[in-house]
């Protein structure tokens, strides 16, 4: 083949700019330019010094523990210093290619040095062991941090390395900064933060048996799919401290606070069997999303978490003295199951929204929760001596079911509950609640020796606007020595005395249809009664039947309990549904409160929207708002047009007539004929096949509430060709 002068020149130029490979081997002849295994350098630093940006230093198996280079600009010693954009690659097994900080082959520590200092480049496939960053008089970072490896920036890449048995007298016993992939950190120690590492980025790395004052495993790093096992911190964060962690796992780590992690932001992480000698077995402070915390323990507070923010997390089998699941934490959409504590099996002093608290145990108070604030939660099948479901705290719109207390308060003890349901709970006293304040609650199917529904001591169990039904006890099937305002007590059972209420004080309350197998079907032991309804009354109300309208115990229009109550001081201004008290239920002059949990909504139109209060109750619209759904139309006008007053029908505009006709209820419409936009009187139709076919039929009714419409005259047929791309038409009725 003939080679031209120009072609030869281009070949030589390309060859001169190609990256070079430099070789390192303990058995090499140490002959420059170290271009083969036979002439390989004996020390890694020798080849690194000979290389240029883009080159590779290939290192054969062996222990590299001789020589040292000063950290540029500082005073500490390193086996290898890399300040070029080169790749240093092992040739062989990681465990057999060792950069050692002390002269282990000679069995002595003549010079204690860091293994590697890097500002650029890549290190791949080495064991870095027994490195030291211990220059007590030097810089806090570059002379005292990163025992095995210190990165002068976050640019160096370290892959497939084992970083072990190294020490820093400040930060990062194993490493300080750098980008790490598929590395292990084991047996490293830091006098301050980060036994395994401090700062840096880590992917698919493992931290095992590292130790620090805080952050036994890693501190202030960005970690993805990393594993933390058997790390220890004297203070905070056995596994990790601060940092941003995704898809990581923590097991068998320990610390005083936050055995698994402390502070930081974590998502999709798992915590298993971590132990805190003080608080936060799983985590301490921090923000967790989609995490699982299982079988963690704390001697004091928060077996799963302490003072953390958790979203969509699962906590089970954790233990602590207080708050086995969580303590002083904020939870949303979380599950706490089968946790165990002395106080607060599931949670203690925490705030929970939309959570499930199930199967937890407290050996003393609060099987599910202690002193916590719960909204829209389910508290079920928890167990304690007192307060099987909850002890103290506040609950809104929550369900407490199948909880058990061996002493008092199967569902709740000493809490404040609003809009809650207490169902099928059991206790010695107060199956549903004990010494609690209940507002707008349903108390049903609970059982106890005293007070199946509720019981109190020293007049602290006060119920307002509550339904108490289907409970059972030896004494006081519905209530035992409780104070009831505007309650309805029906269908409760006492195997001895007081089927409905045993003793107590009753105001504006209906007590009927209860059974006692010995004495006092509805009332026993002379409760105080003011403006009540019960066949057992001797004074303080009416013995006439209350006349319920339905199984929910609303009043019929002819009930003697309407406008028959007495306003309390301070007044109770709403009823079970939140409707205002009083309403003029009997249409006679003056509005007076009703007996029972519900204020009768009768012929009055409280908000002047064209619907009577009774009609609004049936429709579910707001008696105190003339435009319940906020669409600009009064509720009465919407009913007249075929709309639902509780649904904004604007969505029907964009769905198309065919979709609305197929499922009118999905758009809040009563019938498929109610396809109208936000302008009253406008009808929207959809053309099919390019032609509009419309049949207009007038309808009439004499009763809007019946929703029965009859034809008025003949239908008018209308057909028109769709032009100019028209698909939808509107017809406006003047």
Give an overview in words.
The chain is mainly beta and 734 residues long. The strands form 9 sheets. It has a 22-stranded parallel beta sheet, with helices on one face. It is elongated and about 115 Å long. It starts with a helix and ends with a strand. The model is unreliable at 1-16, 651-656 and 672-682 (pLDDT under 50).
At a glance:
The protein is mainly β and 734 residues long. It has 6 helices and 89 strands. The model is unreliable at 1-16, 651-656 and 672-682 (pLDDT under 50).
Any chance you could write out the topology, listing elements then pairs?
Elements: H1 5-17, E1 21-24, H2 44-50, E2 56-60, E3 62-64, E4 69-70, E5 77-82, E6 87-91, E7 97-100, E8 114-118, E9 122-124, E10 127-129, E11 132-133, E12 149-151, E13 157-159, E14 162-164, E15 167-168, E16 175-176, E17 179-181, E18 184-186, E19 189-193, E20 197-198, E21 201-203, E22 206-208, E23 211-214, E24 218-219, E25 222-224, E26 227-229, E27 232-236, E28 240-241, E29 244-246, E30 249-251, E31 254-257, E32 261-262, E33 265-267, E34 270-272, E35 275-279, E36 283-284, E37 287-289, E38 292-294, E39 297-298, E40 305-306, E41 309-311, E42 314-316, E43 319-322, E44 326-327, E45 330-332, E46 335-337, E47 340-343, E48 347-348, E49 351-353, E50 356-358, E51 361-365, E52 369-370, E53 373-375, E54 378-380, E55 383-386, E56 390-391, E57 394-396, E58 399-401, E59 404-408, E60 412-413, E61 416-418, E62 421-423, E63 426-429, E64 433-434, E65 437-439, E66 442-444, E67 447-450, E68 454-455, E69 462-464, E70 467-469, E71 472-475, E72 479-480, E73 483-485, E74 488-490, E75 493-497, E76 501-502, E77 505-507, E78 510-512, ...
Parallel strand pairs: 1-2, 2-6, 3-7, 5-8, 6-9, 7-10, 8-12, 9-13, 10-14, 11-15, 12-16, 13-17, 14-18, 15-19, 16-20, 17-21, 18-22, 19-23, 20-24, 21-25, 22-26, 23-27, 24-28, 25-29, 26-30, 27-31, 28-32, 29-33, 30-34, 31-35, 32-36, 33-37, 34-38, 35-39, 36-40, 37-41, 38-42, 40-44, 41-45, 42-46, ...
Antiparallel strand pairs: 4-5, 84-89, 85-88, 86-87
């Amino acid at each position: 083949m003939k080679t031209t002068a120009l072609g030869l020149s281009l070949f030589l130029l390309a060859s001169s700019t190609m990256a070079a490979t430099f070789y390192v081997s303990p058995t090499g002849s140490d002959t420059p330019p170290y271009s083969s295994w036979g002439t390989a350098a004996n020390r890694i630093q020798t080849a690194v010094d000979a290389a240029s940006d883009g080159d590779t230093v290939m290192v054969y198996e062996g222990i590299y523990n001789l020589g040292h280079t000063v950290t540029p600009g500082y005073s500490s010693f390193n086996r290898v210093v890399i300040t070029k954009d080169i790749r240093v690659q092992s040739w062989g097994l990681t465990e057999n290619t060792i950069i050692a900080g002390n002269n282990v082959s000679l069995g002595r520590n003549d010079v204690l040095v860091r293994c590697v200092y890097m500002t650029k480049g890549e290190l791949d496939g080495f064991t870095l062991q027994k490195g030291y960053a211990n220059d007590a008089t030097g810089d806090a970072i570059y002379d005292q941090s990163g025992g095995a490896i210190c990165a002068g920036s976050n640019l160096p890449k370290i892959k497939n390395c084992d970083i072990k048995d190294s020490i820093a007298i400040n930060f990062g016993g194993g490493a300080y900064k750098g980008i790490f992939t598929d590395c292990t950190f084991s047996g490293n120690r830091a006098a301050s933060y980060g036994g395994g590492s401090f700062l840096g980025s880590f992917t698919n790395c493992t931290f095992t048996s590292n130790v620090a004052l805080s952050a036994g495993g890693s501190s202030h790093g960005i970690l993805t799919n990393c594993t933390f096992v058997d790390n220890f911190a004297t203070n905070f964060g056995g596994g990790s401290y601060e940092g941003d962690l995704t898809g990581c796992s923590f097991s068998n780590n320990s610390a005083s606070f936050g055995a698994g992690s402390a502070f930081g932001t974590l998502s999709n992480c798992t915590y298993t069997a971590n132990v805190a000698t003080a608080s936060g077995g799983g985590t301490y402070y921090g923000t967790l999303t989609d995490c699982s915390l299982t079988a963690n323990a704390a001697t004091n507070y928060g077996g799963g978490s302490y003072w953390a923010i958790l979203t969509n997390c699962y906590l089970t089998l954790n233990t602590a003295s207080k708050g086995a699941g969580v303590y002083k934490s904020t939870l949303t959409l979380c599950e706490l199951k089968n946790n165990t504590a002395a106080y607060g099996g599931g949670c203690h002093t925490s705030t929970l929204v939309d959570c499930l608290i199930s199967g937890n145990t407290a050996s003393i108070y609060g099987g599910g929760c202690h002193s916590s604030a719960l909204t829209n939660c389910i508290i079920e099948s928890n167990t304690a001596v007192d307060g099987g479901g909850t002890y103290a705290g506040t609950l809104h719109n929550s369900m407490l079911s199948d909880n058990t207390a061996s002493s008092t308060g199967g569902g709740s003890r000493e809490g404040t509950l609003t809009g809650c349901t207490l169902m099928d709970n059991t206790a010695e006293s107060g199956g549903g609640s004990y010494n609690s304040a209940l507002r707008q609650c349903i108390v049903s199917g609970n059982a106890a020796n005293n007070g199946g529904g509720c019981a109190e001591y020293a007049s602290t169990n006060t119920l307002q606007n509550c339904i108490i039904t289907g409970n059972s006890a030896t004494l006081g099937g519905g209530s035992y020595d409780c104070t009831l305002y505007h309650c309805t007590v029906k269908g409760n059972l006492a195997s001895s005395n007081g089927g409905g209420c045993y003793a107590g004080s009753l105001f504006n309350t209906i007590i009927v249809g209860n059974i006692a197998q010995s004495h006092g079907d509805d009332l026993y032991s002379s409760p105080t009664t003011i403006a009540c309804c019960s066949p057992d009354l001797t004074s303080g109300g009416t013995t006439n039947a209350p006349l319920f309208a339905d199984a929910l115990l609303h009043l019929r229009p002819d009930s003697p309990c309407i406008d028959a109550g007495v306003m309390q001081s301070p007044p109770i201004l709403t009823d079970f549904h939140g409707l205002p008290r009083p309403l003029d239920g009997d249409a006679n002059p003056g509005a007076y409160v009703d007996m029972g949990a519900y204020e009768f909504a009768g012929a009055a139109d409280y908000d002047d929207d064209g619907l009577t209060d009774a009609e609004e109750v049936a429709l579910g619209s707001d008696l105190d708002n003339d435009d319940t759904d906020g669409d600009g139309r009064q509720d009465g006008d919407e009913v007249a047009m075929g709309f639902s007053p509780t649904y904004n029908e604007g969505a029907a505009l964009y769905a198309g007539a065919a979709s609305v006709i197929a499922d009118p209820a999905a758009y809040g419409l009563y019938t498929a004929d109610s396809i109208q936009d936000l302008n009253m009187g406008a009808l929207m139709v959809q053309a099919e096949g390019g032609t509009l076919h419309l049949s207009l039929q007038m309808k009439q009714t004499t009763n809007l509430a019946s929703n029965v419409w009859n034809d008025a005259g003949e239908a008018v047929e209308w057909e028109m060709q769709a032009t100019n791309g028209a698909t939808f038409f509107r017809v406006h009725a003047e």
